[in-house]
Amino acid sequence: MTRLIARRLIELIPTLLILSVIIFLLQRLLPGDPAIALAGDDSDPELLEQIRRQYNLDQPLPIQYLSWIGGVLHGDLGNSMRLGRPVLDLILDRLPVTLQLAVMAMFFALVVGLTAGIISAIKQGTIWDYLANIVALAGISLPNFWMGIMMILFFSVMLGWLPASGYVSPAEDLQRSLLSLLMPAIVLGSGIAGVIMRHTRSAMLQALESDYVRTARAKGLFESRVVIRHAMRNALTPVITLGALEFGGLLGGAVLTEQIFNIPGFGKLIVDAVYNRDYAVVQGVVLVTAIVYVGMSLLADIGYVLANPRLRE
User: Fold this and answer.
1) What is the full DSSP assignment across 159-218?
2) Are 300 and 245 in contact (CB under 8 A)?
3) CA 54, CA 45: separation in Å to the nearest integer?
4) Mean pLDDT, 10 residues at a time, the chain of 313 residues
5) Concatenated DSSP letters for 257-306?
6) What is the pTM of this model?
7) CB count, 10 Å around CB of 298?
8) What is the C-alpha to C-alpha distance for residues 185 and 152, in angstroms, rounded to an integer?
């Protein structure tokens, strides 16, 4: 296990290095001049040159990259051109909001996806199987923006049960905080729930047809024990990897959902930064998102080995 973790950590170094280069270069492909976006179209040329010198925009791309990555290695992601604040502070302000939304969305996805997948496999060919597949297909197919608007219209405008938009910190009011993120979490987790349901159903069907399950049934064990102790325990092992990767993707995938519900998280931060050509903020947010995703991939590998003793050799 220790060698596995050490090998994965070593592999992360070139991965993150390549990611940093891609993030830096893709940001430079955005149309427009960040100095003009900051100072305005009719700004004095001397002011534009001063802004370019201040943020190293007048330097060649390799020099700009080395300056940026050197700061990153020392924990300095630069300063926002628009807000004048350190990028790291902006990320630390917004990251807890998106993390809370991601945790709630993943909880919803796991509860709905695992339950529907297990029931669908056990009741294969029945009405419950068809209903579970319809729910999974709807969750995967429905666009987030349409689902979010429909939920706001129904639960907020027509029924008045939930707030239509905004965010309340858990430190301020836990109940209001959970209610403010309930609809966004359902919207964000519905697609993942459908994917988890399909994987769980497939794995459960394969497990229920395996030799060890037939042996357990031949011993006269109760069906509930056969399903829970033997089939489900082995079938859910691949879901560990899927769940970890999907959770890492939630940080970057929450952009549209946060915009719809006006949640001040990573999504709103990066959209505003792209609109304002705020290079440092875009690079910082995308880099942190990539690091989290790669880190969740590492945890998925470790969790898969822990759950499957055959892989520990």
Assistant:
1) S--S-SS----TTT-HHHHHHHTHHHHHHHHHHHHHHHHHHHHHHHHHHHTSHHHHHHHH
2) yes
3) 14
4) 73 81 75 63 67 70 79 79 80 85 88 86 83 84 84 86 82 84 88 85 78 70 67 72 76 76 81 76 83 79 67 58
5) HHHHTT-TTHHHHHHHHHHTT-HHHHHHHHHHHHHHHHHHHHHHHHHHHH
6) 0.78
7) 17
8) 13
